[in-house]
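User: Fold this one for me? It's DNA-binding transcriptional regulator, LysR family.
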Amino acid sequence: MKFEEKHLVHLAAVIEYGGVTAAAEQLGLSQPAVSRTLSALEKRVGEPLFQPGRRPLRPTVIGAELGRHGRVILEAAREAAETMSSFRSGSSGKVRIAGVPFFMDAFISGMIGGFQRIEPDILVEQGYGNLQDLENGIASKRLDLAICPLGAIKPKPEFRFTPILKARNVIACRQGHPLLRRKKLNRTDVADFPWVAPLPGSPLMADLHTVLLNLGLQEISIRYSGGSLLSVLNYLEETDALTILPHSVTFAHRKDRKVTVLPLDIPQPPRSLGILRAREAQQPAAEHLVAHILKEFDALRAAIERHQTSVVWGP
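Assistant: Here's what I get for DNA-binding transcriptional regulator, LysR family.
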């Protein structure tokens, strides 16, 4: 015997709420509509579904069994409605975010953790990539958000870019580095020490060449390359090597790592770190994460700028 699902759902609601009127109200239907459904179901079953003369209504044995099946459907419908409501409000769903490695490791991963304390039902998938990879990921809808630097060139028409931090690079070294002990720091002194190369494809690689030209250096000794942010910091702490890093990254690790800034003023790139996304509307969960990152950087930006002004930059 085949049953219509709505008949079983109506039966389950009447059993749960103890009456036709209350069930109809919860289902968003009229009382006569629910009564007709019960009558049709009783006729199909050939048995009464409720014990006569009992208030609130109490199901018969067969009524209770059929109501149990209807309750499964009713609960599934409720959960589906709650899921949809949560998705639309941005309290559930999945956000796929990727970005340039050093910034993702220094800032964004921690911000994602803070975001999920507020929104624990949102899954966040994090990845890495350079600008071209990130643009392709957003264009193909494999990514919702990207954290990347952009310069004077405007983003492509299909993208939105929200700046969050103006770029500033520094030469980083370990605390206690020999150059920090010199009373007068000459610009060419950096050539006397080994260097860590930025990641291939990173904007920092082009920035390093600009710095070398500005310092009048033809070449430097590269001793280490290809490492993650953690491995670069570990390497710097154990050697007298130098490297170029975003100032914000050294700021983020100023208290937990033995790495500092060499107070040598260097050319700065005309770009900003920001959030890249499709111009079309995003799913609410992604927009909630964007709002959280922007709020976090509003507070962080002021602290970074204060730190920058506290350094006495050399010539």
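One thing worth pointing out: Residues 61-89 form the longest helix (29 residues).
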